Please model this.
Amino acid sequence: MNSINLADFRISNDDPLCIIGGVNVLESEDLAMQVAEEFKIQTDKLGMPWVFKGSFDKANRSSLNSYRGPGLDKGLEILSKIKKTFEVPVITDIHEPSQAIATAEVCDIIQIPAFLCRQTDLVTAAAETQRIIQFKKPQFLAAHEMQNVVNKSIAAGNSQNMLCERGNTFGYNNLVVDMLNFQIMKSLNLPVIFDVTHSLQLPGGLGFAAGGRRELMLPLAKSGVAQKIAGIFLETHPNPDEAKCDGPCATPLDQLSVALKELKALDDLIKSQS
Model:
């Protein structure tokens, strides 16, 4: 399947750029609503399709003392409110097979984290919900190996699959995005999303948490959009220095308007050439 229908738009490498945007972890309902409102305003203004993203649990934090999130029940409650208030599809990630059914009752897309893409039981449980599945490409896999991941979902009866690039491990505490990966994953005949936020990570770079290079978000995002892809995954925060997770990678919320305007203009140009 090279395209996915969602709400009143279609996600494919040939259709207008979709924005999967929101927050890293759901810190509070108020903050999530503030971010969702800004995404709603800016994407409506530009006519861009948008899916809200927020995590109810970050089970893969560097430190035991790091904030993980509000948990499954409260997190899904917040996502449900955002979905109804802003009439937007929502996406979140799961870490255990037992979370799949409850998550599917609220979310339109279930995301499988990069570190967990080879966990067959998790992939199968998510796929069996018949929700759209987005697979983050692990930092340790080659792009062509994602076919093995997708095959597990297909074997479980789900053909609604998307792939998401987020960089590859480059030595210690660094990630590099290989632009050839976009074309390789596109050759698997699936929509490809670029998680520019986590591609800016310096994993373990702070010792107790990930570092990041948020000031480089826009040029890196443009490089991905130039590959003619389905969407951009972008996390923001009103005050990234105070974010409870991945603040060094988060785009300041007040910069969202300019970023989306420039990304849309580039996507329009790229896709007008074919």
User: Anything to note?
Assistant: DSSP finds nine helices and 15 strands in the chain.
